[in-house]
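Chapter summary example: a protein plus zinc ion.
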Amino acid sequence: MRTGPRVLDAQQIALRTNVSAWKPRMTDRITPERRSWNMSRIKGRDTGPEKCVRSLLHGLGLRFTLRNTRLPGKPDIVLPRWRTVIFVHGCFWHRHENCHNNVMPKTRPEFWEKKLGENVARDQRSVAAMRQLGWRVHVIWECEVADEAKLRRSLQRVFKVAP
Ligand SMILES: [Zn+2]
């Protein structure tokens, strides 16, 4: 039986998500091995930032389903009741504007320019397609997840949940 939304304090969330071990930082000096490890994490479901967002949503009593591969852009989190999808974007891979994590690697710049540019173009198409289908689209950047309190307030505003 539920007795209203569960509220987790920062420590509980940190324990659940191991968020303290996760640092939103990506530099150009990482090794290729490290880069491919990062890539596998980004492509996987359980990336740190996404876990953290899920935990916050859960704490706010918002029900969601995970990545829906049938919807345009495969949104990371789907909230059917709010007809809202959330994309949790890595700042490097999706070129977060004016973000310190959005760096262009010095090696093979043309490759990265093209690859990351394609990601951004795909993101724009996905958002447009989701809106066309009548969904609200919310993008959360990995750097925003570092400030949990602020992110929680922002989610409260988006979903009109009383603090
Ligand atoms: Zn960012």
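Key point: Residues 109-132 form the longest helix (24 residues).
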